[in-house]
């Protein structure tokens, strides 16, 4: 190749190297431009910046309103505004995130800048990469600002919640006029001009809606929807109840599930038809009218109040079940159920009316006097209704007792609940008379919430138990299918049913406790106690670091924990363990171990709720360690020995033991000592450490439960041994306590100058009857020896033995010679 040719080829390669980056950059730039044209940003940079600025401004405005020194701010409206702002932040983040991903994809197409200094990129590629990096940095900053705004909104929401709870506590401590004072009822007769103006403003929002729905063109549809709502609420409810009752009676198995399912269906039918009727009424007036935000909020509150009232009425009808007393779930006498029949419906209706008035006052933002009047009406309605129900039920029970009829059996827990409700009603009446209207309203609302939760828990617990029993019963198709599918026997199905029902009841109980502790109507029991303490001068208590809410939570946890431990213990002893474990001793040990561990954990939980920190108790632990080393060592030793007895089980409840001259049956193994019942029915308390450290004879520990009745008799040398053998065997065989297998036996044990010695042995069903059996045998043997003119040798030797059946050394029980 010539020099000219080589020079031309070099110039061509150099030009190609310089043109390649530009040629590659042009398609990349075109691809990025096409991608940007296909996916236009949902929001521009300026719009995103403006939206972030608006969100920040709204947050500052909410902070300013929430810190109003006069305290006239409606915190629930600010909470709703915060929820809307939170939704706007999520919407903005959702719009910015795809744009950021798109920019990152475009940068990935361009790739990183070349590392080599000799490699050059086209200026268009450099500018495009810089522009994309700048836009990505802006989006990252906006996304970061949106995240900070969301965190600030969450923080503001928590602060508003605390302010609302503080306002509630202040309102509970507020004292106004008594319900006996005419000034309390004055707003009902002559409201102030300010209240009239606020109610007129609210009416101006409602009247156009009613006028529009009542126009000639809309009137027929409105009337039709209202009539349909009435039909659903009355006729529809009855049809739904009858249909569900027919299903329960004809499609469900003939178990208790029919009763519980029927009660549940009655409650659900009442609530569902009522909710549907309210929705139809709402559609009748709002199908052509857009409600303002205040009316939308009012509708939501009224819907919740209506469904609550329907639930009260449904639970009352389902649990009282006056039409079919045999289907009634709770143990109520028929006269008592009939006496209480009208009260659930009356309570639901009056609570709906009084609650509606209170909601109207809240939406219209009426004065304090009108608000207190609404709260007083609500409290008065609930107190009078529940109090009248309690009085009427007690009067019927007293009449039954006076007539010689036995009232229904009531558990201790039911009596405690009855007493607690009576006390709350009495305290509410006193609060209304003293002028603590908000406090009385809180008590009555919480009382209603407690009744709802308690009745719902009872109904759902019954349904859960009955469903588990019917579903896993081999008497029905479901149980047989499960048995065939998993290859389990009937006992395992019964155990699974018990365990599942216990788990379901525990979950329902936990949900009920959480519902009661969190409060059903805007506050918690801890707020109530704090309010009472503040009224009684709680600043001094707070200065001493005594927290009423911690004390209340600890007391509630202690009461609920003790009741729960006892309930679970009764369930283990009465339902689960008899099906899982057939040995009574093991069941007793497991129950005792569960109780000990449960109470220890409960004490630790209560101390934790009281705010006790274990790192602050190091000096107490040190002092206890010294005390344990001296005075408490025996208690600790017995406690540890008791745990060993319950886990290792060398002895168990029901065993017959002998230790240090004490022989009897173990009746109970406690934490410190074991109770042994002797033959004379007296009880010996033996420390657990002795059962571990000393030699202990357990007569019934082996698999065999048989006892031994053994006699050793000496006769003269001239007596026929075969005749003696037959006589002794006949006596043993004829005795009812002697077992046929193993058969009685006679052994020639000794030949001496003073006579021959025969040992006769027979087995009985239990070691506990061996002594009585030996006594009966001796009576019969002596009788037959005299009849056969056979005498014992002189001196004679008579020995009775109580030997274990497995070749152990017999114990000398009686010797004469």
TrEMBL record:
<dbReference type="Pfam" id="PF12607">
    <property type="entry name" value="DUF3772"/>
</dbReference>
<feature type="transmembrane region" description="Helical">
    <location>
        <begin position="617"/>
        <end position="636"/>
    </location>
</feature>
<feature type="transmembrane region" description="Helical">
    <location>
        <begin position="302"/>
        <end position="320"/>
    </location>
</feature>
<dbReference type="InterPro" id="IPR006685">
    <property type="entry name" value="MscS_channel_2nd"/>
</dbReference>
<keyword id="KW-0812">Transmembrane</keyword>
<feature type="signal peptide">
    <location>
        <begin position="1"/>
        <end position="25"/>
    </location>
</feature>
<keyword id="KW-1003">Cell membrane</keyword>
<dbReference type="InterPro" id="IPR011014">
    <property type="entry name" value="MscS_channel_TM-2"/>
</dbReference>
<feature type="transmembrane region" description="Helical">
    <location>
        <begin position="551"/>
        <end position="568"/>
    </location>
</feature>
<feature type="domain" description="Mechanosensitive ion channel MscS">
    <location>
        <begin position="635"/>
        <end position="700"/>
    </location>
</feature>
<dbReference type="InterPro" id="IPR023408">
    <property type="entry name" value="MscS_beta-dom_sf"/>
</dbReference>
<dbReference type="Pfam" id="PF00924">
    <property type="entry name" value="MS_channel_2nd"/>
</dbReference>
<feature type="coiled-coil region">
    <location>
        <begin position="45"/>
        <end position="95"/>
    </location>
</feature>
<dbReference type="InterPro" id="IPR010920">
    <property type="entry name" value="LSM_dom_sf"/>
</dbReference>
<feature type="transmembrane region" description="Helical">
    <location>
        <begin position="412"/>
        <end position="436"/>
    </location>
</feature>
<dbReference type="InterPro" id="IPR022249">
    <property type="entry name" value="DUF3772"/>
</dbReference>
<dbReference type="GO" id="GO:0005886">
    <property type="term" value="C:plasma membrane"/>
</dbReference>
<keyword id="KW-0472">Membrane</keyword>
<dbReference type="InterPro" id="IPR049278">
    <property type="entry name" value="MS_channel_C"/>
</dbReference>
<dbReference type="GO" id="GO:0008381">
    <property type="term" value="F:mechanosensitive monoatomic ion channel activity"/>
</dbReference>
<keyword id="KW-1133">Transmembrane helix</keyword>
<dbReference type="InterPro" id="IPR011066">
    <property type="entry name" value="MscS_channel_C_sf"/>
</dbReference>
<dbReference type="Pfam" id="PF21082">
    <property type="entry name" value="MS_channel_3rd"/>
</dbReference>
<protein>
    <submittedName>
        <fullName>Mechanosensitive ion channel family protein</fullName>
    </submittedName>
</protein>
<feature type="transmembrane region" description="Helical">
    <location>
        <begin position="442"/>
        <end position="460"/>
    </location>
</feature>
<feature type="domain" description="DUF3772">
    <location>
        <begin position="143"/>
        <end position="205"/>
    </location>
</feature>
<feature type="transmembrane region" description="Helical">
    <location>
        <begin position="588"/>
        <end position="611"/>
    </location>
</feature>
<comment type="similarity">
    <text>Belongs to the MscS (TC 1.A.23) family.</text>
</comment>
<feature type="transmembrane region" description="Helical">
    <location>
        <begin position="372"/>
        <end position="391"/>
    </location>
</feature>
<keyword id="KW-0175">Coiled coil</keyword>
<keyword id="KW-0732">Signal</keyword>
<feature type="transmembrane region" description="Helical">
    <location>
        <begin position="261"/>
        <end position="282"/>
    </location>
</feature>
<feature type="domain" description="Mechanosensitive ion channel MscS C-terminal">
    <location>
        <begin position="711"/>
        <end position="791"/>
    </location>
</feature>
<feature type="transmembrane region" description="Helical">
    <location>
        <begin position="220"/>
        <end position="240"/>
    </location>
</feature>
<feature type="transmembrane region" description="Helical">
    <location>
        <begin position="499"/>
        <end position="521"/>
    </location>
</feature>
<dbReference type="InterPro" id="IPR052702">
    <property type="entry name" value="MscS-like_channel"/>
</dbReference>
<feature type="coiled-coil region">
    <location>
        <begin position="129"/>
        <end position="166"/>
    </location>
</feature>
